[in-house]
Amino acid sequence: MKRIVLTGGGTAGHVTPNIALLPSLKEAGYEVFYIGSYTGIEKQLIEDLEIPYYGISSGKLRRYKSLKNLSDPFRVLKGYFQARTLMRKIKPDIVFSKGGFVSVPVVLAAGHKRIPVIIHESDMTPGLANKIAMRSATKICCNFPETVQYLPQQKAVLTGSPIRKELLQGNKLAGLNLCHFNTEKPVILVVGGSTGAVKVNNAVRAILPELLKDFQVVHLCGKGKTDKSFENKEGYVQFEYISKEMRDLFAMSDIVISRAGANAICELLALKKPNLLIPLSANASRGDQILNANSFKKHGYSAVLMEEDITPETLLAAVRDLYQKRMTYVNNMALSEQNDAIGKIMELITANSK
């Protein structure tokens, strides 16, 4: 039986595509192992699936000044030697990396051991972790056609992002029952990412009285970001994070308000859900979500509202316009060629395993 090591972490976006690959990997006869951080979100998500999990030391790779920049390189170095030890122990035939800072020592250790590595870049332009890792990569998968120009030509492969098959099998009635909603009003799903989005949360809550006249709202707020003052409000329900029932929430939702993380928007594309993207501001990121959102807007898959432009009036107008034009977005998404990411990635894994 061939062995594969999956790695990636820090946010759910660096883990869920790996999870999406698991059924196909097992069907193909691979024994799966996971290397992540000691306490990141990936640890709980993977251990819940009963996949052998190994935690290593990791440090965040920053482009800005911070005192942690003095200590984190030593954590990364420690993680590198831990990963080398694990490579000797597990003896994988191939490594698949979804990125995030914890993946860097794993990819470098695999490269040192001459183990084939496939990495996946979700965003329009490669992040710092993948920029470092791509030197050791055999192949580099990406989501957007525009990304290929930023990657080594002989390594780049346009695949799209692996989407969990169960997301396509949601039950609308189960979602309505979970939220205690009815079928009389359409449903808006608000998704701020696994860690939540305070500005999006606040903006949505500011217009709730108007929204609830015409819609029901299910709000994924992020850990510790629910608001008790909105509990038991008819037509509105909030959760910190949803995993298993996410497919049912998607199934019942008519439109979605979301950040523009690459994996999130690829799920919306696969599900053909009309969406309003509010990308993370360039002041709080390297601007990748803005690039992602603009690409989807250009292809007619998404409406976009910049965080800096949010007011109660602009957000409410954008939501109403999206709902009115929802079928135009559905039809555009139906024409997308960014399909079968899992099949394409599995071909690469099979072809490049030792």
From TrEMBL:
It is a peripheral membrane protein. Keywords: Cell cycle, Cell division, Cell membrane, Cell shape, Cell wall biogenesis/degradation, Glycosyltransferase, Membrane, Peptidoglycan synthesis, Transferase. Its EC number is 2.4.1.227. Residues 4-140 form the Glycosyltransferase family 28 N-terminal domain. Coiled coil: none annotated. It catalyses: di-trans,octa-cis-undecaprenyl diphospho-N-acetyl-alpha-D-muramoyl-L-alanyl-D-glutamyl-meso-2,6-diaminopimeloyl-D-alanyl-D-alanine + UDP-N-acetyl-alpha-D-glucosamine = di-trans,octa-cis-undecaprenyl diphospho-[N-acetyl-alpha-D-glucosaminyl-(1->4)]-N-acetyl-alpha-D-muramoyl-L-alanyl-D-glutamyl-meso-2,6-diaminopimeloyl-D-alanyl-D-alanine + UDP + H(+). It is found in: Cell membrane. UDP-N-acetyl-alpha-D-glucosamine binds at T11, A12, G13, R164, S194, Q289. Pfam families: Glyco_tran_28_C, Glyco_transf_28. Pathway: Cell wall biogenesis; peptidoglycan biosynthesis. It comes from the Bacteria. Residues 187-336 form the Glycosyl transferase family 28 C-terminal domain. Its main location: membrane. PANTHER family: UDP-N-ACETYLGLUCOSAMINE--N-ACETYLMURAMYL-(PENTAPEPTIDE) PYROPHOSPHORYL-UNDECAPRENOL N-ACETYLGLUCOSAMINE TRANSFERASE, UDP-N-ACETYLGLUCOSAMINE--N-ACETYLMURAMYL-(PENTAPEPTIDE) PYROPHOSPHORYL-UNDECAPRENOL N-ACETYLGLUCOSAMINE TRANSFERASE 1. NCBIfam families: murG, PRK12446.1. Belongs to the glycosyltransferase 28 family. MurG subfamily. Cell wall formation. Catalyzes the transfer of a GlcNAc subunit on undecaprenyl-pyrophosphoryl-MurNAc-pentapeptide (lipid intermediate I) to form undecaprenyl-pyrophosphoryl-MurNAc-(pentapeptide)GlcNAc (lipid intermediate II). HAMAP family: MurG (MF_00033). This is UDP-N-acetylglucosamine--N-acetylmuramyl-(pentapeptide) pyrophosphoryl-undecaprenol N-acetylglucosamine transferase. It comes from Lachnospira intestinalis. The lineage of its organism: Bacteria, Bacillati, Bacillota, Clostridia, Lachnospirales.
